[in-house]
From TrEMBL:
<dbReference type="InterPro" id="IPR023013">
    <property type="entry name" value="AGPR_AS"/>
</dbReference>
<feature type="domain" description="Semialdehyde dehydrogenase NAD-binding">
    <location>
        <begin position="3"/>
        <end position="136"/>
    </location>
</feature>
<dbReference type="InterPro" id="IPR000534">
    <property type="entry name" value="Semialdehyde_DH_NAD-bd"/>
</dbReference>
<dbReference type="GO" id="GO:0006526">
    <property type="term" value="P:L-arginine biosynthetic process"/>
</dbReference>
<dbReference type="GO" id="GO:0003942">
    <property type="term" value="F:N-acetyl-gamma-glutamyl-phosphate reductase activity"/>
</dbReference>
<dbReference type="InterPro" id="IPR050085">
    <property type="entry name" value="AGPR"/>
</dbReference>
<comment type="function">
    <text>Catalyzes the NADPH-dependent reduction of N-acetyl-5-glutamyl phosphate to yield N-acetyl-L-glutamate 5-semialdehyde.</text>
</comment>
<feature type="active site">
    <location>
        <position position="144"/>
    </location>
</feature>
<comment type="similarity">
    <text>Belongs to the NAGSA dehydrogenase family. Type 1 subfamily.</text>
</comment>
<dbReference type="GO" id="GO:0005737">
    <property type="term" value="C:cytoplasm"/>
</dbReference>
<dbReference type="InterPro" id="IPR058924">
    <property type="entry name" value="AGPR_dimerisation_dom"/>
</dbReference>
<dbReference type="GO" id="GO:0051287">
    <property type="term" value="F:NAD binding"/>
</dbReference>
<dbReference type="InterPro" id="IPR000706">
    <property type="entry name" value="AGPR_type-1"/>
</dbReference>
<keyword id="KW-0560">Oxidoreductase</keyword>
<dbReference type="Pfam" id="PF01118">
    <property type="entry name" value="Semialdhyde_dh"/>
</dbReference>
<protein>
    <recommendedName>
        <fullName>N-acetyl-gamma-glutamyl-phosphate reductase</fullName>
        <ecNumber>1.2.1.38</ecNumber>
    </recommendedName>
</protein>
<keyword id="KW-0521">NADP</keyword>
Length: 334
């Protein structure tokens, strides 16, 4: 049994960590922080969590005693919190973008802020970095779009069958966090599909970094906001470097992800509702046209495999628990 703290527990990914950890047999949540709800019962802010006695507390990184802390805080905030935890010997899974990049320059260029505390971290996509995650003190949990996009393209890159991708993703509104904005205001985003940051989204270099670990990859990434609460559906297009049929591509994906506990190669086209609430990534389609354009589709829940579920998967790997502990249940279709 380990003790766990959650900094930023009043937000959406913090709430999802609390929900998922209720069924984790190796973890006790000892601290859930919030500055605005200090002293308020967790169940008041997260109404689905009625069986916890936890109250939010406004404590900083210097006061939390735990074996591991999840920092479910915005980018820019995590870099002020994580170093103190690491100095105190507490292992950390950070859900923000602050520690995802190999080099500080790329972070500063795409996030537009100075990084005041770079640290060594392991990029927390278990399908690529499982061994390094196991011994890491700081795991940088991947972004939600990068999780779906990287998993949709990775087998083709590793098998040297493709090196250029056009990636088009549709995201649910919970990806924007608990605070409403003009983009996420109901009259604006309901009955609507809204492309945003069409060539400049900060997840572009993150996807490129991880897909280019073996061979350099060129890509374009465009997110769209759609009126659903949870989920990211990614459609990745590529012109294959080899003449392959749909069934052959599907076999490559099945072989590549064989044994992966949370990736499923599915018949037909994946849908958001099949993964909702779960840590699964469904991948499918694999259609190829006369020009050797292949289309791969992936579906994840942005708050689970795209954030808190993957963070728990990483914690399980770090502490030698069963990788699926607390996460081995299917989605909520329909
Ligand atoms: N939503 C998603 O689908 C995904 C989110 N992420 C990333 O995970 C992180 C959390 O996201 P999400 O839960 O959506 O965000 P939210 O905005 O919903 O929640 C973040 C919480 O962090 C707390 N917080 C904000 N600033 C600070 C600070 N300076 N110090 C301490 N606590 C702070 C706030 O609580 P309070 O004000 O009460 O203290 C807030 O409720 C972000 O970095 C986000 O980019 C990653 C993948 C997917
Ligand atoms: C709908 C919506 O706004 N989505 C967010 C997803 C960001 C996210 O959650 O990822 P990071 O941890 O990298 O910030 C966005 O596009 O910025």
């Amino acid at each position: 049994m380990i003790s766990v703290g959650i900094i930023g527990a009043s937000g959406y990914t913090g709430g999802e960590l609390l929900r998922l950890l209720e069924n984790h047999r190796e973890v006790e949540v000892v601290s859930a922080t919030s500055r605005q709800y200090s002293g308020v019962p967790v169940s008041r802010v997260h109404p689905h969590l009625q069986d916890t006695d936890l109250k939010f507390e406004d404590v900083g990184a210097g006061e939390i005693d735990a074996d591991l802390v999840f920092t479910a805080t915005p980018h820019g905030a995590s870099m002020k919190i994580v170093p103190q935890l690491i100095e105190r010997g507490i292992r950390v899974v950070d859900l923000s973008g602050d520690y995802r990049f190999d080099d500080t320059e790329t972070y500063e260029e795409w996030y537009g802020i100075e990084h005041e505390s770079p640290l060594d971290a392991v990029y927390g996509l278990p399908e690529i970095h499982r061994e390094e995650i196991a011994s890491a003190d700081l795991v940088a949990n991947p972004g939600c779009f990068p999780t779906g996009a990287i998993l949709a393209c990775l087998p083709l890159v590793y098998e040297k069958i493709a090196d250029t991708f056009i990636i088009d993703s549709k995201t649910g509104v919970s990806g924007a966090g608990v605070k409403p904005t003009a983009l996420t205001h109901y009259p604006h985003c309901s009955d609507n599909v809204i492309p945003y940051n069409v060539t400049g989204h900060r997840h572009t270099p993150e996807i490129r970094q991880e897909l280019s670990r073996l061979n350099p990859v060129r890509l374009s990434f465009t997110p769209h906001l759609v009126p659903v609460t949870r989920g990211i559906l990614t459609t990745a297009h590529t012109f294959l470097l080899e003449d392959l049929k749909q069934g052959e591509i599907a076999d490559i994906f099945r072989g590549f992800y064989d044994g992966e506990p949370f990736v499923r190669v599915v018949e037909g086209i994946p849908g958001l509702s099949a993964v909702r609430g779960s840590n699964f990534c469904h991948i499918g389609c694999f259609d190829v046209d006369d020009n050797q354009r292949a289309v791969i589709v992936s579906a994840i829940d942005n708050l689970v495999k795209g954030a808190s579920g993957q963070a728990i998967q990483n914690m399980n790997i770090m502490f030698g628990f069963r990788e699926v502990e607390g996460l081995d249940f299917p989605g909520m279709y329909p």
